[in-house]
Design brief:
- It comes from Microbacterium murale.
- This is Bacterial bifunctional deaminase-reductase C-terminal domain-containing protein.
- InterPro entries: DHFR-like_dom_sf, RibDG_C, Riboflavin_Biosynth_HTPR.
- The chain has one domain: Dihydrofolate Reductase, subunit A (3-Layer(aba) Sandwich).
- Helices cover about 20% and strands about 30% of the residues.
- It has 4 helices and 10 strands; from the N terminus they run ββαβαββαβαββββ.
- Helix 2 links the parallel strand 3 and strand 4.
Amino acid sequence: MQTLTIDFICSLDGFGSAVGWPGWWGMESPEYLDWLDDAPAKDDPLLMGAKTYRVMSELTAGGEPGTDVLNGIPKYVFSSSLDAPLTWANSTLVDTDAVDYVRRLKEQSDRPLRTIGSIALCRSLLSAGLVDRYRVVIFPVITGASGRDRIFDGYPDVTLELVEARTFDHRTQLLEYIPTVVDGPPGR
């Protein structure tokens, strides 16, 4: 069975995006971009929802630095609002239950799986116990006034075992964990 890694980028205060800020909050350092280019998982299939699909396919079409590599990667897009065929190369529309589909995909895939964005999709996959790794890249910015898409709101309680930590260009942090969904605080 293949592994599933949730991948998020966020501000220090947990926002996945912010109004008026460029992609990566304008802090896509050379070391971070090199890591993205060299990562063994860079070609692993991506899971995403409709909103992420729309945003990322537009960024890729618009030539956003570092996004062109996504064109050749298999993408599974979970949506009831998009219509087939999807225009972004190597994209498969899935309009059935995401949890059931991903459970089968983990069993059948010849490669590990990962997500990109897609807060609600990731929340449901984590709650269903399908997530093996949780990787967060934290950018050194607080976007309290302009932040959008709080990543962790509505999540279950989760304990995290740190398995990797890295700093890019002395400012951006990568943290990778093994997640365990728990029923609530310890000792309840």
